[in-house]
């Protein structure tokens, strides 16, 4: 819960009827509270503007704007801020699908101007590719590694289990490439890691949320929308970007990629690791 929500719940029983009306509205609209101003808030709650001002002073804010800015910063930093389902589950699903469509359209604008060309060239020519993903970024990094390793050799997810990043990164240099997946709520070590990678000279691609404030600029910056209609971020644009990167690399070196995929599939057939072997048996009459 956000700091504002905690403060309201802690003081709710001590609020007057008009203040409670405003407080309840705020708790039900935490995800879109930043879109209101104090006049609109007072109108929606059917109270005076002075009631709104008095409530926020009681909660420790100098003004409604101060509270709104704090709430916006929390949401942009990835803090889950839920809202009441005023239009029910069906309405949430409809709004979420619309949000996903908007993100993909935004992604096409961001990446459709050749902005990935340099990164794809770097991936094609790098001796090794290291992929790092922290916390909620880890599934995206893992998926990126699983797709890239089918297209080219020398792709590692860092750090390996039980190891530290320093042990893994010490051998990476200018002939390699690092992809750092670091969406918001990054660990405290992120700025120092980013600075260290820049000093090392290793080519660096960085995947972050839009409007991320970065201390150092990477060689390739991919700012991706994570917007959602309620508490939790959506990673559809991030996963779509992973697919685009891997497909573009495959088609850049199609003969090499096809040969590698063929060798992988032959190993699958020999080791019977996947259920796909049943399909091969059926197709061969086995």
UniProtKB/TrEMBL annotation:
GO terms, molecular function: carbohydrate derivative binding; DNA binding; DNA-binding transcription factor activity
Lineage: superkingdom: Bacteria
PROSITE patterns the record matches: HTH_RPIR
Pfam families (alphabetical): HTH_6 (PF01418)
HTH rpiR-type domain residues: 2-78
Record GO biological process: carbohydrate derivative metabolic process
Protein name: HTH rpiR-type domain-containing protein
Source species taxonomy: Bacteria, Pseudomonadati, Pseudomonadota, Gammaproteobacteria, Aeromonadales
């Amino acid at each position: 819960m956000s700091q504002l929500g905690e403060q309201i719940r802690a003081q709710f029983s001590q609020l007057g009827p008009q203040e409670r009306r405003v407080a309840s509205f705020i708790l039900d609209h935490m995800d879109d509270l930043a879109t209101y101003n104090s006049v609109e808030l007072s109108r929606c709650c059917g109270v005076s503007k002075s009631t709104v001002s008095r409530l926020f002073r009681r909660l420790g804010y100098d003004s409604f704007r101060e509270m709104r800015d704090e709430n916006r910063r929390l949401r942009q930093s990835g803090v889950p801020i839920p809202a009441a389902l005023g239009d029910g589950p069906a309405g949430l699903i409809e709004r979420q699908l619309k949000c996903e469509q908007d993100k993909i359209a935004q992604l096409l604008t961001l990446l459709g101007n050749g902005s990935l060309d340099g990164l794809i060239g770097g991936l094609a020519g790098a001796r090794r590719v290291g992929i790092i993903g922290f916390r909620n970024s880890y599934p995206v990094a893992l998926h990126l590694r699983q797709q890239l390793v089918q297209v080219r050799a020398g792709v590692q997810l860092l750090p390996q289990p039980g190891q530290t990043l320093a042990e893994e990164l010490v051998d990476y240099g200018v002939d390699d490439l690092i992809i750092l997946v670091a969406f918001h709520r990054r660990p405290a070590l992120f700025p120092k890691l980013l600075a260290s990678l820049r000093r090392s000279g290793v080519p660096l691609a960085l995947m972050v949320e839009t409007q991320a404030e970065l201390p150092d600029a990477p060689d390739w910056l991919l700012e991706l929308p994570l917007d959602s209609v309620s508490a939790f971020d959506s990673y559809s644009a991030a996963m779509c970007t992973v697919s685009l990167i891997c497909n573009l690399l495959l088609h850049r070196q199609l003969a090499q990629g096809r040969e590698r995929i063929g060798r992988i599939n032959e190993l699958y057939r020999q080791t019977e690791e996947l259920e796909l072997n049943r399909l091969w048996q059926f197709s061969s009459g086995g």
